[in-house]
Amino acid sequence: MASFPPLKNDLILRTARGETTDRTPVWMMRQAGRYLPEYRAVREEHSFFEVVETPELAAEVTIQPVERLPVDAAILFCDIMVVPEAMGLTVKMVSGQGPTFPQPLTTPEEMERLVEPDVDAALGHVFEALAVTRTELNGRVPLIGFAGAPWTLMAYMVEGGGSKSYRAARRWLYRHPEASKALLQRTTDVIVEYLIGQVEAGAQMLQVFDSWAGLHSPDTFCTFCLPYLEEIAARVKNAHPDVPLVVFAKGVHHALEALADTDYDIISLDWTMAPDTARDAVADRAVLQGNLDPCALYAPPEVLRREVHHMLAGFGPHQHIANLGHGMLPDHDPEHARVFVEAVHEHSEHMRTV
Ligand code: CP3
Q1: What mean pLDDT do residues 243-266 have?
Q2: 39, 72, 140, 156: which is the annotated catalytic residue?
Q3: Three-state SS for 289?
C-alpha cells in the first residue's frame, strides 16, 4: 500500500473503534455537491462523469467541503452507479432526474449483457482519485470510500432510474427470485473487490449505501439484502480487519439488531429512527451514525442549533458519529451546513464537561 502523510485528525477513526474521545466527530453525506457554489463552478466546465473520471477534479471536489467547513472526514466524490457501469450497463446522469439506464435489465435473460469486470481496469480511475485525494488532503482528515449495496444497485439496474416504489425491481424479486439472487451475488462479488481496492488505494473507512433497503418487507430484506450486506462486510474485514465499515440501510427499523450482528462497525441511521431506540436495539455492538433530518438545515440557525443539541443528547457523548439522516440537498444554504457542523463541535464538547 502507498504511504501518505500522517493524520492530524483521526477523531472519526478512534470513535469508529469504540474509543472515547473529547468531541463527537461530524461529517455529512453528500457533503460534496450542488449546494456548494465552488462545486457548481466545476460542473459548469465539466460533466458529472468527467469529474468522477478525472482524479484531479474528483480530488478537488472531494476537498471543497473540507476547505470550507470543520468536518472530520472527506468522502470521495464518485457515485454508486460506477459499479453497474463497470458490469456493462450504460448510465447517464440526467439533470434534475439523477442516474438513468437507457437499457435496464427488463428480464433475467438480459443479464447476459452483464460482464465480469476487471475491477482495476474498469474502476482504476476511482482508485487513482483516492490516492490523489489522500495526498492532497495531507492528513487533514481521513478519507471515506464507498459503494452502493447490491439491492440498491439492482433497484436502479432493473428499474432504469429513480422511482418512488421501485415496482419493477420488486416485481423481479417475486417473479424471478433465483435470478434476483444471481444478480445480487454477481454485484456483491464486484463490490467486494471494489471496496478492497479502495482501501489499497487510500480509503481509511468505507460506507455501504443501501438507500432503498426500506422498500422491503422484513422477510424480503432478510432474503435479498441482509445476506449480501453481511457477505460484503465479512469479506472486506477478512482482507482489511482494521478499516472501519459503515452500513447505511435507509428505512430499516426492523433489522437494527441483525445489522449489529454483522461485521459492520457503524450503523448509519436515517432521521425516522430515534437514537435511544436504536441504541437499545444494538446495545454496545456498534457505533451509531446520524441522523438529523436534512430538512432541519432549512430552519433558522437558532432552531437548527437546538435540533443538533437534541440529537446529540439522544445519542450521548460516545459511540456516535454525527451526520445527517440522508444526504445534503441541492438548495441547502452552505452557511447552515456550517451551523450544523459547528453546533456539533460546541455541544458535544459541552456534553463532556457537564
Ligand atoms: O459527497 C458525497 O457524499 C460523495 C459523493 C456521492 C455522490 N453520490 C455524488 C453525487 C455519494 C456518496 C453518492 C452516493 C449515491 N448516489 C447514492 C447513495 C446515497 C443516497 O443519497 O442515498 C445514490 C442513491 C446515488 C444515485 C444518485 N446519484 C442519485 C439519486 C443522484 C441524483 C441526485 C440528485 O439530487 O439529483 C446522483 C447524482 C449525484 N451523485 C450528484 C452528486 C453530487 C448530483 C449530480 C450533479 O452534479 O448534477
Answers
A1: 97
A2: 156
A3: strand
